[in-house]
């Protein structure tokens, strides 16, 4: 949905949806809760209730934001780290506290203020002016009445006024503005060398006793994951489409039923004549009819295979080839199934002997059978001896590499060695700013912070740094300070940002104190 919004952001409906998403969210988590009577309560803030429905919608809103940011990269592990469930409830609780503060102070929203705030929304404007017809149309498209929307807008204004009162008086000094600008604009250029563990592998001897001890202390590292062996058959839509016969009568009926697919490009020009698009109609007809036939064929095959529990036998009857995968674990890819999560879900949720539901593929469908399952287990040492030895060898090599780097760095700091004259290729990063990323090395906040602490008088850090198992020694080659004249062009935006950041910190502290004073109760059993 967000992709559609990005592509069609100029549409008044899409503009309206962006506004409604924001207001509906405000309406959800600022409502006093009385309307939730009869719904499951997941938390209370003093006398205000938070219902499961509100919580779920708050959760969905946050999820949609993270999905738009991370897309397919949003894994289960990331979801746990982001603590979205906790954030969804925290947002609702914070809104209740702010709404209560607005009521305590006595803030009110006048009709004029409400009308002015609504009329300013671009989604409700036509020719840069509020349009009532457009306003009602957008609300109706989002299943909201004017009363519901306006009530939500009132609460939004009240919460904004409460936040404004809490943040009131935030100021940014000239020193703070300059320090921020200077930190963001200063750059350094480093000279550095890389020391690889692989160069110390031969010296990192490993005894059987060391490998056994490592295995004993780190058995989970060697745990063998659950794995499955499957076999499957595929049915392709193109094979079925080629068998579909057509008649002119069939094509005419399809054309009349789907005439909107054959419209002329000119505005209000109507549809293209049947005779002109007959070839195109035939292609689309075969595709759609083929899809129907294929579905029937696939589900009939699945029904027969489920009865006999013999995929190979049914495949032989249907003259379909059977693909055998051998054992694979979660995370391992099966040839041809790289981007099909449904295949892996079916494979790891079924029991041995089960026949799957039809699984869609880019070219049609597949049906799979789990031949055998192997549960996760901790292996015996002898089964993973080579891996244990390799792991200890790698660990000792990394330690030797770091020790060598420490020796070299000590010599450089004492003036006995020169980084440019060592038997290692010296690299130059080029000028770069703060942020954690070090060119030619990778991301390391610790290394980046150390780089900007270096000076002409003290060009070497106290210790080497390790990124992705590679040890780095660095030396400051050049430092470019921020230009005070340049601050003039960016000072306003920097002050605005710092004011917002400081205000947010004050609000965060206020909410923390407000939580200790309020009677907050959560019902964790309903938040799972």
The residue fraction in helices comes out at 40-55%
Determine the number of helices (DSSP H or I, runs of at least 4 residues): 18
β content, as a range? 5-15%
Q: Any low-confidence stretches, pLDDT <50, length ≥5? A: 1-38
Q: Within the largest sheet, what's the order of strands? A: 10-5-14-13
Distance between the termini: 26 Å
**Mean pLDDT value:** 87
Rg (CA only): 33 Å
In terms of structural class, how would the helical and strand content be classed? alpha+beta
Relevant terms:
528 residues, 15 strands, disordered N terminus, alpha+beta, 4-stranded antiparallel β-sheet
Structure commentary:
This protein is of the alpha+beta class and 528 residues long. Helix content is 51%, strand content 14%. It is built from 18 helices and 15 strands. It has a 4-stranded antiparallel sheet with strand order 10-5-14-13. A 4-stranded antiparallel sheet has the order 7-6-9-8. Helix 2 (12-30) crosses helix 3 (52-70) and helix 9 crosses helix 18. It is extended. The protein starts with a helix and ends in a 6-residue tail after the last strand. Mean pLDDT is 87; it is low at 1-38.
Short description:
The protein has 528 residues and is α+β, with helices and mostly antiparallel strands. It has 18 helices and 15 strands.
List the helices and strands and how they pair.
Layout: H1 2-7, H2 12-30, E1 41-45, E2 48-51, H3 52-70, H4 76-82, H5 84-105, H6 111-119, E3 125-126, E4 129-130, H7 132-141, H8 146-167, H9 174-185, E5 187-195, H10 208-217, E6 227-236, H11 237-241, H12 248-257, H13 274-308, H14 311-317, E7 323-329, H15 341-349, E8 359-361, E9 364-374, H16 385-413, E10 427-428, E11 437-438, E12 442-443, H17 445-451, E13 465-467, E14 470-480, H18 487-517, E15 520-522
Antiparallel strand pairs: 1-2, 1-15, 3-4, 5-10, 5-14, 6-7, 6-9, 8-9, 11-12, 13-14
């Amino acid at each position: 949905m967000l992709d559609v919004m990005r592509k069609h952001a100029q549409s008044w409906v899409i503009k309206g949806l962006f506004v409604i998403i924001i207001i509906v969210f405000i309406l959800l988590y600022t409502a006093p809760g009385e309307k939730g009577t009869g719904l499951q309560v997941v938390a209370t803030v003093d006398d205000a209730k938070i219902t499961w429905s509100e919580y779920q919608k708050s959760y969905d809103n946050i999820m949609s934001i993270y999905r738009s940011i991370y897309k397919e990269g949003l894994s289960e592990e990331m979801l746990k780290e982001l603590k979205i469930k906790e954030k969804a409830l925290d947002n609702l609780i914070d809104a209740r506290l702010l709404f209560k503060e607005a009521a305590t102070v006595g803030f009110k929203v006048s009709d004029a203020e409400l009308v002015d705030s609504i009329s300013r929304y671009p989604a409700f404007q036509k020719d840069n002016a509020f349009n009532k017809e457009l306003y009602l149309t957008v609300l109706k498209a989002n299943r909201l009445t004017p009363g519901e929307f306006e009530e939500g807008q009132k609460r939004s204004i009240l919460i904004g006024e409460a936040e404004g009162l809490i943040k009131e008086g935030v100021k940014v000094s000239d020193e703070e503005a300059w320090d921020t600008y200077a930190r963001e604009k200063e750059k350094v250029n480093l000279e550095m060398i890389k020391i690889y563990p692989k160069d110390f592998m031969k010296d990192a001897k490993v005894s059987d006793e060391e490998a056994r001890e490592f295995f004993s202390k780190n058995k989970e590292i060697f745990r063998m994951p659950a794995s499955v062996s499957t076999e499957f058959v595929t049915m392709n839509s193109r094979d079925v489409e080629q068998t579909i016969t057509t008649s002119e009568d069939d094509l005419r009926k399809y054309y009349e039923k789907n005439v909107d697919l054959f419209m002329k490009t000119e505005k209000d020009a109507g549809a293209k004549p049947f005779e002109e698009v007959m070839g195109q109609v035939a292609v689309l007809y075969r595709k759609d009819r083929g899809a129907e036939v294929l579905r029937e064929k696939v589900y009939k095959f699945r029904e027969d295979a489920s009865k006999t529990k013999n995929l190979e036998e049914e495949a032989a009857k249907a003259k379909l080839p059977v693909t055998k995968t051998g054992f694979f674990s979660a995370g391992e890819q099966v040839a041809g199934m790289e981007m099909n999560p449904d295949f892996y879900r079916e494979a790891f949720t079924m029991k041995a002997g089960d026949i799957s539901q039809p699984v869609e593929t880019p070219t049609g469908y597949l049906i799979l059978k789990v031949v055998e399952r192997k549960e996760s287990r901790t292996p015996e040492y002898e089964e993973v001896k080579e891996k244990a030895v390799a792991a200890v060898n790698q660990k000792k090599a990394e330690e030797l590499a770091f020790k060598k780097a420490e020796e070299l760095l000590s010599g450089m700091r004492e003036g006995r060695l020169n980084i440019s004259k060592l038997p290692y290729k010296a690299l130059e990063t080029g000028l770069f700013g703060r942020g954690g990323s070090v060119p030619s090395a990778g991301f390391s906040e610790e290394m980046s912070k150390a780089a900007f602490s270096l000076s002409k008088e003290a060009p070497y850090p106290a210790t080497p740094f390790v990124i992705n198992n590679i040890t780095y020694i660095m030396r400051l080659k050049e430092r470019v300070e921020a230009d005070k004249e340049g601050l003039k062009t960016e000072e306003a935006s920097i002050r605005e940002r710092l004011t917002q950041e400081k205000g947010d910190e004050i609000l965060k502290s206020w909410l923390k104190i407000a939580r200790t004073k309020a009677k907050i109760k959560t019902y964790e059993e309903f938040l799972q």
